[in-house]
Structure formats: C-alpha cells, structure tokens
Amino acid sequence: MKNIFKTKIKISTGTKILINKENVSIKGPKGSLFLKLPNQQQNISSSTKKALYPLFFRKFQKALVGVNLGYIVRLVFVGVGFRVESLETNFIKLKLGFSHFVFIKIPPYISVFSPKKTRLILKSIDEQLLKEFSSKICSFKLPDVYKGKGILYKNQILTLKEGKKK
Predict the structure, then answer these.
(1) d(C-alpha 104, C-alpha 83), whole Å
(2) CATH numeric code, 71-153
(3) Which fold has domain 4-68?
(4) pLDDT tens, residue by residue, 119-154
(5) Residues 6+ positions from 36 with CB-CB distance below 8 Å
C-alpha cells in the first residue's frame, strides 16, 4: 500500500479551507462540508489515533472533490411495473410491485431527478451520505439473481443463475 501522505492534493482557486481546533471546514462552488479532526476525539488510545489519520486524509480528499464537482449516483429500475411514480419536494413515490406505493423522504443534502420513469439520478456533495441513501433505496427491491429484476446501480452487472432443471 502506498503512503497516502506523500500524494499531493490540488486545491482549486474557488475552494476555501478553514482549520479550527476541532474541525476543518471546506467551502467550494457546490457547497460546504465540515470534518472533525481525529486528534480531538476523547477516550482513544494513541495507536488508534494514528490509524485515524489516513481515514481523515481520504475523507478530506473526498470532501474536496465533493465541494468542487459533486457526486452522482444513477439508479435503474429493471422489471415490469418497477418505476418512479412521482417526485415531490420532500418525497419519492415508487411503484415496486407491492400492493402499495413506497414513499421515501428525500434528505435536504441530496437532490433527486428522474429523466425517465425507470431512472433515478441522485446528486450530493457528500459521497458517504449519498451512498447510504442510494443503498436505502436499493434495499426496497434487491436485485434478483434468477430473473435480473430489481433496483440496480447504472452499469452494475448481474450474473444470472440458472434455475432448476427437471
């Protein structure tokens, strides 16, 4: 594994970084993020604190990319009757083959678009929160490995299993 502290980080001209005693705030054209410094956490041994520095460095890199460019996750609904029924300001209404619609509350840090009924585009500046929300949506209809139906990430490849033989 390479030493991540030797990698150089390029900071664009529109990005501002403010470092306080307990946190780092990063402001860019897309928004702002706050990261807590690892040395300010209490009740942690010194060896554990050393292990937290590479984690903080990666979070810092991802925060820089997020406030400058943002992150996008594309979801595809595969199957008959699986679709985005409507998008409102606070809720997504999904039809997933149940006897009822599935309503999902949209967090304020994520913007949602649906160019087609079978596609959903999620945008955010925080990658971790975006992936958590997209996995929550995917958990309502996990991909079926026998039929290939469900909610998939774009470019996700499913290897279909063979069914029973008589």
Answers:
(1) 13
(2) 3.90.930.12
(3) Outer Surface Protein A; domain 3 (3.90.930)
(4) 999 999 999 999 999 999 999 999 989 998 999 999
(5) 22, 23
